[in-house]
């Protein structure tokens, strides 16, 4: 009857893992539960093989479940099926290569990122690392991707 104690403790620890996630309580609970199974089966070599077999089977089942869950009908309820791609017109920031070499005025303090007014448009800019106070004239040094890199004029 000693094995029932270990089974109950293992189930309790795995239940705690459901409430307080982190992995530690669940792994310890699973180990304690398997110890209870091992003792309950007599503690022989056959019991050891049974525990190892159950563990390997559980790992394979969990890997299969997590790899295929998003394709099941219930998995589609839990996952977002839409993607925001550039082909669909979703662009995070326009690349404004025409700004290179133009001058403007820092509208906010650039620490090192902020907003500048260039050609009567508000543009997100980034300095080369220095802070630039609002109202300071700036020049766009280069445009890399969506980043407009500026320095004081």
TrEMBL record:
Q: Which parts of the sequence belong to the NfeD-like C-terminal domain? A: 98-152
Q: Where are the transmembrane segments?
A: 7-40, 46-66
Q: Which GO terms describe its cellular component?
A: plasma membrane
Question: What name goes with this protein?
Answer: Membrane protein
* Protein's membrane topology: Multi-pass membrane protein
Q: Which Pfam families match?
A: NfeD
| UniProt main location, coarse | membrane
The record's keywords, sorted A to Z, are:
Membrane, Transmembrane, Transmembrane helix
Cellular localisation: Membrane
The reply on keyword Metal-binding is no
- For whether the record's keyword set contains Transmembrane, the answer is yes
């Amino acid at each position: 009857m000693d094995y029932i104690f270990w089974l109950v403790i293992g189930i309790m620890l795995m239940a705690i893992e459901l409430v307080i996630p982190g992995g530690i309580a669940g792994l310890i609970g699973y180990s304690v539960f398997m110890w209870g199974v091992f003792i309950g089966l007599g503690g022989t070599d056959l019991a050891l093989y049974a525990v190892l077999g159950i563990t390997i089977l559980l790992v394979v089942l969990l890997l299969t479940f997590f790899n295929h869950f998003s394709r099941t009908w219930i998995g589609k309820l839990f996952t977002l099926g839409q993607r925001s791609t550039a082909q669909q017109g979703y662009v995070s920031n326009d690349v404004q290569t025409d700004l290179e070499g133009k001058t403007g005025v820092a509208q906010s303090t650039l620490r090192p990122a902020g907003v500048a007014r260039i050609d009567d448009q508000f543009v997100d800019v980034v300095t080369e690392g220095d802070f630039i106070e609002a109202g300071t004239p700036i020049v766009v040094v280069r445009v890399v991707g969506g980043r407009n890199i500026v320095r004081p004029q």
